[in-house]
Amino acid sequence: MEDGAQRLTTNNHNSAGAYQEDDDLWNASVPHEHTSIPQDTSTLAPAQAIKWGHLTPDERARRQIRFDRRMRAASGSIKKVSARRRQDSTPLPTSLVSDELSVAASGWIGTCIPREGEKEFTVDELCGPEYNMKLIDWDGCLSRPILDVEARVVGVLAGRPRGSDWDATVDQATRELAFARESLRPSDKDSDHRRGKFPALVAGISFGGGQTKPANLHSSKVNKSILDGLLHGASKSFSRIAMFASSMLECYAPRVFASYRESLDALLAQDPTLAPNFHKSVFAAATFNLGPSTVTRPHLDRGNLAWGWCSITALGSFDPDFGGHLVLWDLGLVIRFPAGSTILIPSAVVKHSNVKIRGGDVRCSFTQYTSGGLLRWVYNGFCTDKDLLAHAKKEGKEEEVNEKRKADRAKRWAEGLEKFSKVENSKFVY
Ligand SMILES: O=C(O)CCC(=O)C(=O)O
Ligand SMILES: [Fe+2]
């Protein structure tokens, strides 16, 4: 345990009592409420056992579902299994000063940084005298919220669901990525981009440079069929991973989650042609980093929402003690990152990369995120800045609209940071 680390003791709703603490709740094919249905009164909390003792099992089950929903609503709506995970987590304090991170003047996205060279780093180099970083020997299972200097939760080593079938899900996802990699056209196979030298496929809803409105990220015909397999294949591996990551966002950054949820709902209501990747995930878009050596260079994903979190799930078959670690440059951390585990970070503002992997090892990853442009579109009332200002001019309200926009810009980053949760007196506050 690092200096100053403490155990979170959230005030969550254990009184519901009737839940089985069962990570099979993550099993995408089973609606989670049904897994918690008590079959006899002995599994009910005492108060419910007295009140509901006369009911038939079916009636009790229905009441239990309603009761659980109310309990979840009262406690910020997270599932019991997530609340337990949060309660058992040990924070990871750092000296990050979040207010000093760089964001674009608009406050919606991150800033541009120069593209870094091809050098791949080892753990020894990063933790040696030149970079002086700290190795976090994470087991990849237990959740660890990452705290800034003000005990603000700026990200989380989320871990993995405890269900016994998670390894099978991870193996299946890894096989599906290998198949996708093999199926790419040769020209797509050796791509070299800002983040590194490995092919990647993107899917979902985005609004970035050059677009006039939010749109579904599209790909070539070949890649579309590969993506369809990854997103909608019978195994549902990526839908499970996506759902776990989304629920971890809800658990550790409920107010960021709510912003994603609200803006996604607004977008879908306004434009029914937009198609999210997964029903049970609030992230608007996803990237499949196909490897075989997904070792990213130090980079920012600057188009993502500045105060948004991006989920990263490591996949593949590699030695996590040798490489694949997630390096968080602004935090001075090198985090062991085994396949099957998920980490969430504000990737638009925190520079990150991976440690070099061992020759012959295979590393892939799956990320989910929401672009800042999407929230700006919703904030503008579903139009671009340009159209908004043109409209304001026509109405003779240019000055008024400009003043408001200027004021909003100036406070957007600070307001975004306020959406992060805090750990105060060992309690999770949001
Ligand atoms: O694979 C990883 O651990 C990092 C992935 C990443 O940063 C990205 O895809 O932008
Ligand atoms: Fe990234």
Automatic annotation (TrEMBL):
Q: Where is this region: Disordered?
A: 1-21, 72-94
Polar residues bias (residue ranges)? 7-17
Q: What Gene3D superfamilies does the entry give?
A: 3.60.130.30
Lineage: superkingdom: Eukaryota
Q: What is this protein called?
A: Uncharacterized protein
Specify the species: Hypsizygus marmoreus (White beech mushroom)
UniProt lineage: Eukaryota, Fungi, Dikarya, Basidiomycota, Agaricomycotina
